[in-house]
Amino acid sequence: MLELRPGCECCDRDLPADAGGAYICSFECTFCAACAQDVLHGTCPNCGGGLLPRPLRPAALLPKYPPATQRVHKPQGCAPAREPAA
Question: Which domain holds residue 60?
Fold first, then answer.
């Protein structure tokens, strides 16, 4: 099950689990739409993988399957993605 992290790693913008606007990579690194598109150009700065819209968790299921509460944030912001490691 996806963690549904609560904020953007780059700018720390809130990203509610039941709202759109979040992008993730296959490792669940999480970014807001502005950072994913304008800063990172659709590529995760951590692994080099693609960023895709994060699925929404229906609000009715949040009590049974709550999203993550631990924030991952880079106070220095995010640099554009690097090439994936070989």
Answer: 1-69
Q: For residue 57, which amino acid is it?
A: R
Percent of the chain with pLDDT over 70: 93
Return phi, psi of residue 33, to 5°: -60, -40
Overall number of domains in the chain: 1
- pLDDT for res 82: 59
Q: Report the alpha-carbon distance of residue 28 to residue 47 in Å, rounded.
A: 10
pTM of the model: 0.85
Q: What is the mean pLDDT of residues 70-80?
A: 84
For residue 36, give the CATH number of its domain. Answer: 3.30.40
